[in-house]
Amino acid sequence: MTMTTRRDFPVLETERLVLRQLRAEDAGELFAYFSLDEVTAYYDLDSFAEPAQAAGLIASWQRRFDRGEGIRWGITLRGDDRVIGTCGFHEWSKAHYKAEVGYELAPAYWRQGLMTEALAAIIPYGFEALGLNRIEAFIDPDNDSSRRLLEKSGLREEGHMRDYYYEKGRFVDAVLFACLKRTHAGKTKV
């Protein structure tokens, strides 16, 4: 993995991926997959109905980055600048040296190990460059794909919270996964 910075936004490169800053012109790609119910099934957003929603999401992620509250990368394949997903950190608590990791990928790219590769780049970045001590993820108990991804990425299940979120008109449970800086080194299985 190599790291470069463009206008203070880190660009991370892996064997197959380039993780880069999202741009307004990426809204079309985000809309294409955020409009699919299979993508938003376990997401805290309803499926998008219009492209302006994708543009708004990109702008929201950029504001969080500008304020130092989080970072969200656009995931692209090497040699193809089209965004096929995103990943990053939110709910960044600098006082407690922790943040939540989040991600999604267009269905055409599922089950190819791409998100495992992306997390293998951003998790060390979180520990090393952002100074995190703890990285968390909250997932729906039924989301087996996310469970496998997090386990492969070195996060461990820490608990099941009942009715933890109110999403899409109902209360939903959440399973907490986490990893610590001192125990994570070398855990990701790409």
Automatic annotation (TrEMBL):
InterPro entries per the UniProt record, alphabetical: Acyl_CoA_acyltransferase (IPR016181), GNAT_dom (IPR000182), N-acetyltransferase (IPR051531)
Top-level taxon in the UniProt lineage: Bacteria
Start and end residues of each N-acetyltransferase domain: 17-173
Protein name, UniProt field: GNAT family N-acetyltransferase
Originating species: Paenibacillus artemisiicola
